[in-house]
C-alpha cells in the first residue's frame, strides 16, 4: 500500500523531469551550429565591431547632421545585432571572440584622416560599399541549418536594407 502512495507522489516529478529533458533536447537541436555557422558568427562578430568603430568615428568627426545621425543609428543597430549574436554564442557555448579585421582597421584609419565634406563622402561611400558584402553574408546565413543562425539573419536583414537605402540617399546628397 505504501508503495502505491509513493508511486502516486512520484509520478508528477517523473513527468516534470521527462518534460524538462525533452525541452532541453529541443533547445540543443535549435542551437546546434555547424562549421558554416561558426564562420558566419566570426564574420558577423568582426563586421559588427568594425561598423560600430567606424560609425563612432563618424559620429564624432562629421559636422553634417545627416551623417552624424546616420552614424548614431548605425551604432545602435550594430550594437543590437552584436547583443543578439552574443546571445546565440552563449546558448551554443561558443566562447571565441573576434577582432576587427586588418582590412577594416586600415579602412577606418584611412577615412579618419579626412575632415569635413571629404570625411562625410568617404565614410558614406565605405558604408555603401561594405553593405553589399554584409548583405550577401546575411542572405546566405538566412538559409543555414541552425534555426538560431537563420532566425538571427532573417531578423537583422531588414535593418541592413534600411541602412543601405539610407546610406545611398545620404551619399548621393553629398555629391
Summarize the structure.
The protein has 6 helices and no strands. With 175 residues, the protein is mostly helical. The longest helix has 30 residues.
The whole-number mean of residue pLDDT values reads 86
Distance from N terminus to C terminus (CA atoms, Å) equals: 89 Å
Structural category: mainly alpha
Q: Total number of β-strand segments?
A: 0
**What is the approximate shape?**
elongated
Q: How much helix is in the residues?
A: over 70%
Q: Main sheet?
A: none
Radius of gyration: 23 Å
**Model regions low in confidence, pLDDT < 50 over at least 5 residues:** 18-28
Q: What is the beta-strand fraction?
A: under 5%
* Oligomer kind: single chain
Alpha plus pi helix count: 6
Q: Topology as H/E string?
A: HHHHHH
Q: Could you characterize what this model shows?
A:
The chain has 175 residues and is mostly helical. Helices cover 85% and strands 0% of the residues. The chain has helices at residues 2-31, 35-61, 65-91, 102-112, 116-141, 147-173. α2 packs parallel to α4, α3 (65-91) runs antiparallel to α6 (147-173) and α5 (116-141) packs antiparallel against α6. The radius of gyration is 23 Å and the shape is elongated.
